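Hi R.,

Here's the chain you asked about this morning:
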Amino acid sequence: MLLRFLLLTVLNLALAACSEPETALRIEGRTMGTFYAVTLADPFPGGEKALHQQVEARLAQISQEISTYDPNSVLSRFNRSPANTPFPIPALMARAVAQGITAGQTTHGLLDVTVGPLVNLWGFGPDKRPQHTPSDAEIAAARARVGIDKLHLTQGKEGALLSKSRTDLYLDLSTLGEGVGADAIAELLEQSGVHHYLVEIAGAVRSKGHNPNGAPWRIAIVDPSDKPGAFQAVVAPKEMAVSTAGSYRNYYELDGKRYSHIINPRTGKPITHRLVSATVILPTALEADAYDTALMVMGPEQALTFAQKNRLAVYLIVKTDRGFEARYTPQFTPYLVQ
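And here is the predicted structure, written out as tokens:
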């Protein structure tokens, strides 16, 4: 999914592998408007060339399904389809939509995969950056098109069918794209007999087993200050997925104000609070990728309360008058490397 809006600024590279062994088999590339890297401690059938080809092919397939920039993608064709008409979608896309709907319901709409009209209005989607701050009327018109209650997914033995109650509903799975990709590559590796790996697609990470030195994989949560080599914490994922969302890199300034790419579906406007980074640890990168975005919309207090109530492993970085401050739930503590 070549999400060009991520090319407007440097994407939030909130997670990076720590102390990567020189003996690792590692490939890197570009996908979804950002970077990916796959590091193995096991041999891959056919070697580095085969690994690169198969990873690239899998990511290209994902783009063909859920890209908003490819007019021929399954998602783009669904967005052009009429209302109240069942539209067949592939299994991977159905999995992403189902997770989006579930997270949207759990967060009471703060994660909304139909928020695309607002994202585009503020210039973080395929549309160009606005020449002026959107008016209240423009925001209201875009908000009328938004809402997961207007999206309907049916899954059965015959496959998955997706429909919408408004013709102009705009589905955008960009907030889940990195998680979708990380899970898909992890699945590819497992099917190839590889059980010791680290997969990174920007802020979404999947890992399993150990690195080539026999030690657990470790991941750094990068310091938002962008000081070279600075990080807030190091975690050992323990074969769980890790995903981070942040507001401090993908933004622009207009009319003397700074606007983040993270849009609050309730207000129709970019977030303005002091939560700058949210890291979530869950079994799949898709799940973690869904909730890190919702937490960023919530803000520091509400995000921490939500994470505690739902017993989520969450690590927040908040900008204060004294600098950046970390706040995390008890469920996150076992993953921290002291």
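One quick note: The CA atoms of residues 14 and 165 lie 37 Å apart.

Cheers,
M.
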